[in-house]
Structures
1.
Amino acid sequence: MTAQRTPSSQRLHIAFFGRRNAGKSSLINALSQQAVSLVSPVAGTTTDPVRRPMELHPLGPVVLIDTAGIDDEGELGRLRAARSLQILDETDLAVLAVPAGEEPGEADARLVEELKRRGTPAVGAVTMADRDPAGAVAQAERLAERFGFPFWACSSVGPPGVAALRQRIIAAAPVDPSEVPLLADLIAPGDLVVLVVHLDAGAPKGRLILPQVQAIREALDAGAVAVTVREPDLAGALRALGRRPALVVTDSQVFGPVSKVVPSEIPLTSFSILMARHKGDLAELVRGARAIDKLRPGDRVLIAETCTHHQQKDDIGTVKIPRWLQERVGGKLQFEWAHGREMPADLEAYRLIVHCGGCMANRRLMLSRIRRAQAAGVPIVNYGVCIAHLHGILPRALTPFPELGELMGGSAG
Ligand SMILES: Nc1nc2c(ncn2[C@@H]2O[C@H](COP(=O)(O)OP(=O)(O)OP(=O)(O)O)[C@@H](O)[C@H]2O)c(=O)[nH]1
Ligand code: SF4
Ligand SMILES: [Mg+2]
C-alpha cells in the first residue's frame, strides 16, 4: 500500500494545538513542505480542523491535523476551541505550539493537563525562534521542565528551521497507532488461514473490502498460507485443502452457514469481531453485549456513528439494529443518534451505547469513546459484536479468544 493510499484510519494522527497566531499552520506547512494551511497575521485564521495526510520518514504515513486556537473568544470562538479539543479524542501525538517570547496561557496549561490525564504523548514547539534564537532555546528548556515533555525551538521561515522538531516528533511518536493486529497474533508461520467472503449485490464491484485485504496481508506477513473463498465454495475448499486451518474468518452475514461447515474444534470468527478488537477494546464491547439482555422497554439507547454516510433504505444504524433490539426487548426503546465527531455530553442518560464499527476512525478515537462510556458507567457495544450477540453467534465468534468467552458465561472455547 503506498502512503497516498493508506486509509486515514490506519495513519498515526499528529495534531497541532496552541493559541491563535501561535504559528501552528505555518509549522504544518514547513513540516509537510507544502502550503496546505492558510497562514495570516490575523488571529483565528484556522477555524476548523484541517487534516493533511503525508509521509513522515521513517514513521510512515501520518495525518497532520491543524486546529483552531484553543484560546478563541466569543460564542463562536469558544465553539471553535471546543472543536479543537475534540480532536484530542483521535490524537496519537500532540504538538503544542508556544510563540518565542510569550508565556503559555491558561488555555495551554489546561490542554497540557488534559494530555496528561489521557496519557497522550506530546512534544512542544517554541515557534518563531528566528526572532530570538538564543531566547527561544532557553524558553524551550524552561517549558520542558514546567510541562514534563520535550520542547524544541523552531522556525517556519528561517533558521533554526523545523528539522530538529521533526526528529523530536518522530522520536516521541507511539510506534504503531494500531498496536493490536487484525489476526497476526492468532497464527504462526506455516499455518493455514481460511477467509470467507460474501460477494452479494452489496459488495463493491471488482475488489475486496479493507478488512479482507488487511487480513490477507497480515497472514502473508506472518508467513501463513491465506486461502480466500466464497461461502458456497467453502466446504469443497476445506476438503481439497486436506489440512486443518488454524483459523477461519468469515463475513458476518454468512456466519450461520459457515459455522455449520467449519468443525467446532477449529477457531472461527468474523471480520467484524477482528476489527472490533483491532480498533477498540473487545472485552469491553463483549461486556456491552451482555447489557443488551438487561434492556427494558422505554430505555434510552444511543446509536453513534463516526461518519455521516449516505443512509440506505434498510440502513443498519437507523433501521436494522433498532428493529432487532426492540424485537429482543419485546417493546419500544427510545433511540437517539449521534453522527460524526460529536457525542452527547451526558452519556449517563443512556442504558446502552451502540457504536458503529468506526471504519473511518482510528483506534485512538474508538478507545476514547469506550473510555468515556466506561467513565459514565454506561455499557458500550459496537455493531459487529451487537449483531453477533443478537444472532446468537457471539460465543462461537469468540472461540479464538477463550479468555473473552468467559465474559459471556464461559460458553466460548
Ligand atoms: N517570523 C516568523 N513568523 C511566523 C512564524 N510562523 C508563523 N509566523 C507568522 O505568525 C502569524 C501566525 O501564523 P499562523 O501559522 O497562521 O498561526 P496559527 O497558529 O495557525 O494561527 P490561527 O490559525 O489564527 O490560530 C503569521 O503572520 C505568520 O506569518 C515563524 O516561524 N517566524
Ligand atoms: S462503520 Fe464506517 S461507514 Fe459505517 S458509520 Fe462507522 S465510520 Fe461510517
Ligand atoms: Mg492556523
2.
Amino acid sequence: MSASKHPLLQLSGVTKGYFLGGTEFRAVKSTDLSVYPGDYISVRGPSGSGKSTLMHLMGLLDTPTTGKIFLEGQDVSGLSETKLAKIRNRKIGFVFQQFNLLPRTAAWENVALPLVYAGVSSDSRKILSQKALEAVGLAEKSGNKPNQLSGGQQQRVAIARAIVTDPAIILADEPTGNLDTVSGRVIMGLFDKFNRQGKTIIIVTHEKSVAKHARRKIAIIDGVVKEKLKSQNSKRKI
Ligand SMILES: Nc1ncnc2c1ncn2[C@@H]1O[C@H](COP(=O)(O)OP(=O)(O)OP(=O)(O)O)[C@@H](O)[C@H]1O
Ligand SMILES: [Mg+2]
C-alpha cells in the first residue's frame, strides 16, 4: 500500500488486558498496526491467541487498556460508548460467526437495522436493503425469516447488513466458521468482490484457506501480532 495514503485505522501501542483476581492477563500485547483504504487483511491464529480481542479493538467494540486507536486520523480511544456506537454505525460493518440475525424478522428488515439506527427514512431503508441483498445474490429471499434460510444464506444476509450503510471497513470474525466448505467459498467470494470494489476488509480466522484470500496476512500468537511479508516469506514484528 502506498506510503502517501493516510491510514484508515491505526493502532498505536495498543494492549488489552483482562483483570481477574487482581492479576492482569494480556490478551493483546503491544501492537502497532496501520490499515489503509482498500486493504484486504487476514488475522490468523490458534484458539485463544487474541483474534477476537484484536477484532473488538479494531471495531471500536472495546477500548484498549493502553495505547491509542485512530479512525481516519481521529483519536477514538477515549470516546464515550454513545459516541463510539455512532462511529461504528457509520464507519464499520460487522460479520460474526453466529450470523447474529433477529430470528422473527424478515431478511430485508435485518439488513435495514443499521439504517434504523442511522435515522434513514423508511422508504430509503427498503430500497437500500434490497440493493444490499441483491449484492449478495439474495434479492428473491428478502421476505424470508432466518429460519427459512440456509446457514450460508443467513451469513449472506449478515453481510448485506454489514454493507448496507456503505461503511469504510468490514470486520468479519470467523465468517465461515459455521458453514460447510462450499458455502464458505461463496462467502469468501463476496468478500473478494467487495474488496475489488474498494472496500477495506479485515477477516479473523484460524483457517489458512480463508486467510489466503487476503493480501496482507497478520498472525497472532499469545497476543503478539506479526505481519507476514510477501517478499521475504518471513515475519516481522509490527
Ligand atoms: N472478558 C474476558 N475476560 C478474561 N479473559 C478473556 C476475556 N475475553 C477473552 N479472554 C482471554 O483472552 C484470550 C484471547 O481470547 P480471544 O477470544 O481473543 O481468542 P481467539 O483467538 O478469538 O480464540 P477463538 O479462535 O477460540 O475464537 C483468551 O485466553 C481468553 O481466555
Ligand atoms: Mg475468537
